[in-house]
Design a protein that fits this description.
about 375 residues; alpha+beta; six-stranded mixed sheet; 11 helices; binds zinc ion; signal; Heat_shock_Hsp33_N
C-alpha cells in the first residue's frame, strides 16, 4: 500500500526528481513550527507500549539495558530486522547538543543546523570500522557559512558551523546553495573516499538522502531534526533505515506502510515522540510495526571529542610568518585562539609563546638529527 506520503525505500531506482518529491512529501519540515508539541504523542503509542517485536542480541536475556526512559541519556540504537533485510539506526542527541551549543555560543538556528548535520553523520558512521571517520560538509553560500561534522563508529563526533551566531533567516536560506561533500577515511586506506552532490534546498537530511542515493547508490530513508524552545534544545535526533542487499520486498513494504501510517498521524511524529519522552527502542518498535520483527545490534552513548591541545596550537602558530609572531611578542600581546570544534579557548602570554616556540624548535632539532643518522 503506497500512498503519496510513503517514503520509497527503493530510492536507487527512482529519478532524482521523483525521489526528491517522495522524500519531501514524507519528511516533516526541517524547521519545526514555533509551537511546542509536548503532549500529542500518546495516541501514536497504541501498539508500542510493550515491545514484543524486538529481540535482544544473542547472549543477553532482556531488552532492559537498551531502554532509556524519557530519553534521559543520549543514545545511538541500531537494530536489524530478523530477516536481515533492513538496518535501523536511531539517535537522540539532546544533552550533547545543549552542551555544545553553550560551549560554542551558538544561536538557536546555528544549533539546529549543527545538530541536524551531527545526526546525519553520526547515524551514517554507525557500523563503520573502528578508526574510520565520516566527515559531512555542507558547503553553502548562505549566511551560515557552511557546516562541518566528523563522526566515528564509536559514537564520538566533532563539528562546527561557519557562523555560530547566524539568526533571522529560515534554515534553508541560511544554508544557501552549494554542495554536500562526504569524506570517509581510515588510517589503513591509501587515500580517502570522497563523494559530492548538490544542495537541493529541501533541508539537511533530505540533501544527505539525495547524496546517499546519487553518490553511493544506497537505498536509505534518513531523517534528522532539532526542536528548540528559545536557546534550549528540547529534542534532537533522527533515524536511518537502510535496505541491505537482497532485502525482502515484503519487509520493505511493511516498513514503508508503517512509516506512512505514522506520518498520517502526524508529519512531525518522530520529533513529537522524542520530545514526548518515547525512547528509541519504542520508536523502533513503532517503525517495525506488528508484522516485522527486529533484533538489537547495539546501543551506545554518543559523545563529543576533540584532539585540540596546546601543542597543536603551537604547531599551527609555527606556520604563521615568524615576523608576525615576533611582532605579537614585542607588543606584549596575548595570543588567543579558540578551537572551532569544541569551543575551548587557549590563551598564551608573550612569555608562553617564546617558551613554547623554543620547546618546539628544540624538538625539531632533535628530530632532524635523528633523521640525519
Ligand atoms: Zn577542541
Amino acid at each position: 500500500m503506497i500512498t503519496n506520503r510513503t517514503v520509497p525505500l527503493l530510492l536507487l531506482l527512482l529519478t532524482t526528481l521523483i525521489m526528491l518529491h517522495s522524500i519531501t512529501s514524507f519528511t516533516p519540515r526541517l524547521l519545526p513550527s514555533p509551537r511546542f508539541t509536548l503532549k500529542t504523542k500518546r495516541s501514536l503509542l497504541r501498539s508500542s507500549s510493550s515491545i514484543t517485536n524486538i529481540h535482544p542480541p544473542t547472549g543477553t536475556h532482556s531488552l532492559s539495558p537498551y531502554l532509556n526512559p524519557n530519553n534521559k541519556n543520549d543514545q545511538i540504537l541500531t537494530l536489524l530486522t530478523s530477516d536481515g533485510s533492513l538496518k535501523l539506526t536511531l539517535l537522540t542527541l539532546r544533552n550533547l547538543l545543549n552542551d555544545l551549543s553553550l560551549d560554542q555560543n551558538l544561536s538557536p538556528l546555528s544549533t539546529r543546523a549543527l545538530g541536524t548535520a551531527f545526526t546525519c553523520s553520526t547515524m551514517l558512521a554507525s557500523g563503520m570500522d573502528t578508526n574510520q571517520i565520516f566527515q559531512l560538509t555542507i558547503n553553502g553560500d548562505g549566511p551560515l557559512r557552511g557546516i562541518c561534522t566528523v563522526s566515528s563508529s564509536d559514537g564520538t563526533m566533532k563539528g562546527y558551523v561557519g557562523n555560530p551566531t547566524c539568526e533571522g533567516v529560515e534554515l534553508i536560506n541560511a544554508i544557501g546553495k552549494g554542495t554536500v561533500q562526504v569524506v570517509k577515511n581510515h588510517p589503513d586506506w591509501p587515500r580517502p573516499y570522497n563523494g559530492i552532490s548538490g544542495i537541493g534546498g529541501g533541508g539537511i537530511s533530505i540533501d544527505v538522502g539525495v547524496y546517499l542515493a546519487q553518490s553511493e547508490q544506497r537505498e536509505c530513508v534518513i531523517f534528522g531534526e532539532v526542536e528548540m524552545k528559545g536557546f534550549l534544545v528540547t529534542g534532537s535526533g533522527g533515524y536511518l533505515i537502510e535496505r541491505l542487499p537482497e532485502a525482502s520486498e515484503a519487509t520493505s513494504d511493511a516498513i514503508e506502510k508503517n512509516l506512512a501510517e505514522l506520518a498520517k498521524g502526524s508529519q512531525n511524529w518522530f520529533m513529537d515522540s522524542l520530545v514526548g519522552g518515547t525512547d528509541l527502542l519504542t520508536v523502533a518498535s513503532m517503525i517495525l510495526g506488528e508484522e516485522v520483527e527486529g533484533k538489537v545490534l547495539e546501543s551506545i552513548e554518543p559523545a563529543t571529542t576533540c584532539e585540540c591541545s596546546l601543542e597543536r596550537l603551537v604547531r599551527s602558530l609555527t606556520l604563521i610568518p615568524r615576523d608576525d609572531v615576533m611582532d605579537i611578542i614585542q607588543k606584549e600581546e596575548n595570543v588567543e585562539a579558540k578551537c572551532e570544534f569544541c569551543g575551548k579557548m587557549y590563551r598564551l602570554s608573550p612569555d608562553d609563546v617564546k617558551r613554547e616556540f623554543e620547546k618546539f624548535e628544540k624538538m625539531n632539532e632533535i628530530k632532524m638529527k635523528e633523521e640525519g643518522k
